[in-house]
Amino acid sequence: MVSSKHEAMHRLFQSHPEVFERAFAALNLPFPKPLSVALLPNDLTEIEPLERRVDTLLRVDTNEGPFLLLVEAQGRDDKRKPSSWAYYLAHVYAKYDLHPVLLVVCQDVATAAWAAGPLRIGPRQWTSLVVHPLVLGPHNVAPVTDVCDAVNDIPLTTLSAITHANDANIGAILKTLATALQKIDQDDALIFAELTELGLGKSPAGNLWRQLMTVDLSFFRSETSQRLRAQGRSEGLAEGRSEGLAEGRAEGLAQAVLHTLDRRGIAVSSDARTRIMSCAEAERLLNWLDVATTATEVDDLFRGEP
């Protein structure tokens, strides 16, 4: 069964295949600029009882000729994958008579190191086949923490957020993406907000993203906004709904501040925790969230305040 993380990566590369061009350019990889990209069927099954399905299969046309790009999202090392990947590469090469490249996207350095291989198939005495994936992960996809950079390249910023899900600095990356989404077309923002939520899943970073999105529900209609709207409907009156949403925004931001401090290993006293959770001012909470991404102690949040 395809997980939400796999589905997010699948949709990101399908809808915005140009993202790998810019990622490859940043890594100085020798791939020419795509002239066109076509989505190909990802079902590679040949024998009926055995299902073989790559996450995404793209045909990339360049001025140096076409090639195939197979995209896989990988959450951990898996001893069964080398045989599957070897099958994918051999099958599409035979079927389309085009040279394939396997791109594996990871969220942690250890999995990325394993996936990069080379993964050898054959007895100890003789290697019959070598699978050498191209890997994107937190080790080579730069974290995007500048809002202008994020606005200029939302797809790559989304990929950055997903691949850095386990980083201590994820709070700053997600805050940057959330701010950037408010500066682009509303429909586009919805798509990338949903992709980010799918890609982060139920991880702590995913929870932080859903909390950040409570600040502006106008374009975010997934799990968080549905929950808050349901709470609003149960309260009945329009005034009650408004107050409930405001409280939900403040609570979400307060939890985001505490989560960021916790991820960075900063101790939070009971008094500081109470002060943060009892704050109902969204602007102040946003300022605290900014400070939390670089603070060395919890008191840094309150410096200069009465």
Automatic annotation (TrEMBL):
This is Transposase YdaD.
